[in-house]
Design goal:
With about 240 residues, the protein is mainly beta. It has strands spanning about 10-15, 15-25, 30-45, 50-60, 65-75, 90-105, 105-120, 125, 130, 135-150, 160-175, 180-195, 200-210, 215-230. The protein has one domain (about 15-30, about 60-230).
């Protein structure tokens, strides 16, 4: 008799993580730019490896409020926590997104919609040893809304502080989804400082809900995140 996840009591665990994030959008010209991203994710705050993620992309700026990006992402996930993977495994992604900027009074608002085509080498048992298996293709959609609020004045100026927050939902779709459509939800709140000529430095709290593909295991993770968002331009300055 097969028992579906709906008939099985869900299992929950909590991890305490620390993430360091670099997120760069560097203009090459008025219309084109380079996206560079590195995330070093640790579990047990900083003691254990959790994930190392790199992402690159090419930005195209339709105007000052709208940009589109396509790129590549490589991630290595390590065993961590009570629901640890059987071994370290890699993932390759192709991704596309649209980024929309707007404002409501003094609040800066960003809406981002991203599609990911994922090739995941999940662990498999071979000759009594778990190793990364053949790549399995899945699709995922992500929707994010982020806000920035200056702590002084009406806009975020150089050498000023601000409050930042976001919510992002991750939805699986297509083949090989598993037993759940909702993959993750992330909620973040932090405080930041705008550094002249560099970008925005933030520290904040991230609440991460992960639903495993078996439909039973659920992670409720608490994360301290330190991030640098850089807008340093790579284009040549005119003489």
């Amino acid at each position: 008799m097969n028992i579906s996840p709906a008939q099985t009591k869900r299992q929950y665990t909590t991890n305490y993580n620390g993430w360091l994030v670099y997120n760069g959008n560097h203009k090459l010209s008025d219309k084109w730019g380079l996206h560079l991203e590195l995330q070093w994710r640790r579990s047990r705050i900083v003691l254990d490896n959790q994930q190392l993620l790199t992402r690159v992309g090419l930005n195209y700026y339709l105007n000052g409020q709208v940009s589109i990006t396509a790129g590549y992402c490589y991630a290595i996930t390590y065993p961590y926590g009570a629901f640890a993977a059987k071994c370290m495994f890699p993932e390759n992604r192709i991704w596309e997104q649209i980024n929309l900027k707007s404002s409501i009074g003094i609040v800066e608002v960003i809406n981002r919609f991203r599609l990911e085509q994922r090739y995941i080498n999940s662990p498999v048992l071979e000759d009594g040893i778990y190793e990364p298996g053949d790549a399995v293709y899945t699709n995922r959609a992500r929707a994010l809304i982020r806000f920035y609020v200056p702590l002084k004045g009406k806009t975020i100026e150089d050498r000023s502080c601000y409050v930042s927050g976001f919510n992002e939902v991750y939805i699986n779709f297509g083949k090989n989804v598993g037993f759940n459509i909702l993959d993750q939800n992330r909620v973040y709140l932090g405080i930041g400082y705008k550094m002249p000529k560099v970008g925005r430095l933030e520290i904040g709290y991230l609440n991460q809900l992960i639903l495993k593909s078996d439909g039973i295991k659920v992670e409720k993770n608490h994360t301290i995140q330190v991030s640098l968002t850089s807008t340093i331009e790579f284009r040549k300055k005119k003489a």
